[in-house]
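Team,

Forwarding the record for the chain on the shared tracking sheet. I've put the sequence and predicted structure together so nobody has to dig through attachments.
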Amino acid sequence: MQTKSTTSGAKGEAESLHLSEKCEEQLRRIFQREMKKSAEENSETKRETVLRIGVDGGGCAGFQYTFALIDEKDVVTGEDRVFVGRRFPEEAKVVCDEVSFEYLKGSTVDYAEEMIRSAFEVVKNPNAEQKCGCGVSFEAKF
């Protein structure tokens, strides 16, 4: 079974996960940094870093978003969807499992830089009835 690969926000793609420009730029920086580390270490295997996003039960509103940087070789064929950025398709990739994707369809993944933190976040989730004040958890519409 093949991994489902989709361009972020592809035209005509009703079931998509969108990557903001800031998200793509940050993923590109991370990807390039990890590739540089691999080269400096004379590593035979390249570190091709992607962002894994998921949804777990928990948080103050019922569900919470999870984010992790993983090596692309850890993507599970047939169980994960891979979304690639429009501007940097080789460097900006987000991976999501099928179950979490049901809660994330149509959402936008952004990267926010604030005075106290910098982090990836989900914004504009059409599947969220409401979200908590910190934006980490949400109540699903279904």
